[in-house]
Design a protein that fits this description.
It is an enzyme of class 4 (lyase). Heterodimer of LeuC and LeuD. The chain is an alpha/beta fold. The chain folds into 3 domains: about 150 residues, 2-Layer Sandwich (Aconitase, domain 3), CATH 3.30.499; about 100 residues, Aconitase, Domain 2 (3-Layer(aba) Sandwich), CATH 3.40.1060.10; about 160 residues, 2-Layer Sandwich (Aconitase, domain 3). About 30% of the residues lie in helices and about 20% in strands. The protein has 14 helices and 19 strands. The strands form 5 sheets. It has a 5-stranded parallel sheet with strand order 5-4-3-6-7, with helices on one face. Helix 2 crosses helix 3 and helix 11 packs across helix 13.
């Protein structure tokens, strides 16, 4: 019987079919962060439960940790330091590998797991973070969970999961110059809505996907959760294998993963096809990632009034004429070395517009070091950007650092919900290239 890539991984991990569309699934990797990790580990300890295999569990300080230079355990979030210190103590007690605040391998979960070869093709990987789907770019079954599920998985090595339906999203042809993986996923969201993938795992396929490097594939899979999907996944290939070779936690030699693909005659529950040659640089106008248009387009005349009121926009308004206050490059979507290189190429030798606050937050300490070795940090700082330490900070508002009230932010992040980056903050999501160009222009602009 022919199978999809997802079916092959699912079947190889089913311990028992529980009926009703659910199964008990074996879990290969578990990733924790300081916002929820301590709670799960503390709950396990209080119940007298131990980790079934500490070697398969990893933790990192990324969500609450400060990104300002010279950071320590202190944060601007009230009570934030306790999250960090308690997670550190719990990880030591449990024997878990922890990438601490100033560890050389510290960074955002979905950046460092691939960087270190923790995620591998064919594995199941979970983390209490909805953007765990990022790691499906490696042909892994990776998805976000809650703290109680993390506790169950750490104690048993298993998790009860309802099997999602399958959807294939194929991008035919090749992208135009200046168009990115971020624009690919934003185009999908704009055309089919933020709920278009509900109940499905999305396999991204087609010529345009195969032409992407691994970092771009991660960007594509990262926003599968914005499509309401269970996760996203891409069949591993030579590009994947070459990326993983020699990584810290990757096996040597690498196993043979060449059978991890959807069979030619495999059937999906749903199919979407997009002509990649028609995709343009994109930017969101509203308060949902699905409320997105091309940078050279105007706000829809039938746009949702509530979203317009929050964003301070009018129907028919050209989005590229919209002034910005802040430009932010960072997050698990677009803070990898290739993202920083492309943005730096745009700002090199130029200055950000007067009155614009601009920041770059690398996705990991390793990315930061590599960028500095290439001089990218100097390009950004010479242009007027702040150069930060790695972490999730300012991607979402957790009660700590924020932008000035009422700011309009052009951001390489993945969500533009009301208050996502702070109370009253208006966020427009776009590629790092659009963010860089907008920082220079002082308004939303195409690269």
């Amino acid at each position: 019987m022919t199978q999809t890539l997802f079916d092959k991984i699912w079947d190889s991990h089913v311990i028992i079919d529980l009926g009703g569309g659910s199964a008990l699934i074996a879990i290969d990797r578990i990733f924790l962060h300081e916002r929820t990790g301590a709670a799960a580990l503390k709950s396990m300890a209080e119940a007298g439960r131990k980790l079934v295999d500490p070697a398969r569990v990893f933790a990192v300080m990324d969500h609450i940790v400060d990104t300002r230079p010279g950071r320590g355990d202190g944060t601007l979030m009230k009570g934030g330091e306790a999250f960090i210190t308690e997670t550190r103590s719990a990880c030591r007690e449990a024997g878990i590998t922890l990438f601490d605040v100033n560890d050389p391998d510290q960074g955002i979960t979905h950046v460092i797991s691939p960087d270190l070869g923790i995620v591998l093709p064919g594995l199941t990987l979970i983390a209490p973070d909805s953007h765990t789907c990022t790691q499906g770019a490696f042909g892994a079954l990776a998805w976000g969970i809650g703290s109680s599920e993390a506790e169950h998985a750490m104690a048993t090595g298993t998790l009860r999961v309802s099997k999602p339906k399958t959807m294939r999203v194929s991008y035919a042809g090749q992208l135009q110059p200046g168009v990115t993986a971020k624009d690919m996923i934003l185009t999908l969201l704009a055309r089919y809505g933020a709920g278009g993938g509900a109940g499905h795992i999305i396999e991204f396929a087609g010529d345009a996907v195969r032409a992407l490097d691994m970092e771009a594939r991660m960007t594509l899979c990262n926003m599968a959760t914005e499509f309401a999907a269970f996760s996203g996944i891409i069949a591993p290939d030579k590009v994947t294998f070459e990326y993983l070779a020699g990584r810290r936690f990757a096996p040597d030699p690498l196993p043979d993963w060449t059978d991890l693909f959807s069979d030619v005659s495999a059937r999906f529950d749903s199919e979407i096809r997009i002509d990649a040659t028609e995709i343009s640089p994109m930017v969101s106008w509203g308060t949902s990632p699905g409320q997105t248009i091309a940078v050279n387009a105007s706000v829809p005349v039938d746009a949702d009034q509530k979203a317009l009121n929050y964003m301070g926009l009018e129907p028919g308004q050209m989005i590229a004429d919209t002034p910005i206050n802040v430009a932010f490059i960072g997050s698990c979507t677009n803070s990898r070395l290739s993202d920083l290189r492309r943005a730096a190429a745009i700002v090199r030798g130029r200055k950000i517009a007067d009155g614009v606050l601009a920041l770059v937050v690398p996705g990991s300490s390793a990315v930061k070091r590599a960028a500095e070795a290439e001089g990218l940090d100097r390009i950004f700082t010479d242009a007027g950007f702040q150069w930060r330490m790695s972490g999730c900070s300012l991607c979402f508002y957790a009660g700590g650092e924020s932008f000035p009230a009422g700011s309009r932010v052009i951001s390489s992040t993945n969500r533009n919900f009301e208050g996502r980056q702070g109370p009253g903050i208006r966020t427009h999501i776009a590629s790092p290239e659009v963010v860089a160009a907008s920082a220079l222009a002082g308004r939303i602009a195409a690269p």
